[in-house]
Write a structure and sequence with these properties.
Blueprint lengths: L2 H15 L4 H13 L1 H65 L2 E6 L5 H14 L4 E5 L1 H11 L4 H4 L12 E5 L2 H8 L8 E5 L6 H15 L1
Antiparallel strand pairs: 1-3, 1-4, 2-3
The structure holds zinc ion.
Zinc ion binds next to helix 1 and helix 3.
Length: about 220
């Protein structure tokens, strides 16, 4: 290789970048006009640069695709998390409803007889032999109310003994299906004043009203 070719080829990178001073630039241009060998080298360099930029574009494209995929994954994870929370909440709501709403309260007449109280209990057991039955006397009912309003003792201090406006009642924990049958006893048995359940509630409504009661009583 000629000495001048060597120098020019060393300068080609700077020439391509446009960083050469005027003198060197003129030297390269003058030489390229007459030297086929250096022209070849210079053309190779230009080709490499184009290929390099194509490669950069490909890398950029791949990075973009990767970014889009990870965005998509994040979205899927977010949707999955929300769905899981919704499903879990629904399980909690329905479990709570299933456990609590089926409880039946049977309020008894003031003049209910011991015999009628026994008959009512038998009727419940006939419907659901596994039902849990709790009897609350008038006194129990009053004490529960006093307990509930213990912050406001004056409010209920006048009540007690014969002066008790509350009714004795049964609380029955039966299966959902049997709770409905027990609910149907209303009007069929003497001694029953009223039967209440939360069975007709929509589960969401039921849980919301219970939360509201909790909040207002605390
Ligand atoms: Zn040359």
């Amino acid at each position: 290789m000629k000495k001048e070719c060597e120098i020019v080829q060393d300068l080609l990178i700077g020439y391509q970048d446009g960083t050469l001073h005027t003198y060197s630039k003129e030297l390269v241009e003058k030489h390229l006009k007459k030297c086929e060998e250096c022209n070849k080298v210079f053309n190779e360099m230009k080709k490499d640069e184009v290929e390099g930029s194509i490669q950069e574009q490909e890398i950029d494209y791949l990075k973009n695709v990767k970014r889009k995929i990870s965005k998509k994954n994040k979205l899927l994870i977010a949707i999955g998390t929300i769905l899981t929370i919704v499903i879990l909440l629904n399980i909690v709501v329905f479990a709570y409803y299933y456990h609590e709403a089926r409880k039946v309260q049977i309020y008894l007449n003031n003049d209910v007889t011991e015999e009628q109280i026994g008959d009512i209990k038998n009727a419940i057991t006939n419907i659901d032999e596994n039902a849990k039955i709790e009897y609350h006397s008038k006194e129990d009912a009053l004490n529960e109310l006093k307990e509930k309003f213990s912050d406001n003792k004056d409010l209920l201090s006048g009540y007690g003994g014969d002066n008790n406006p509350l009714n004795a009642y049964y609380v029955i924990d039966a299966s959902m299906e049997n709770a409905r049958k027990i609910e149907g006893l209303e009007g069929n048995l003497p001694g029953i004043k009223k039967i209440t359940t939360n069975l007709s509630y929509n589960p969401y409504e039921f849980i919301l009203s219970n939360i509201a009661i909790e909040l207002t009583s605390n």
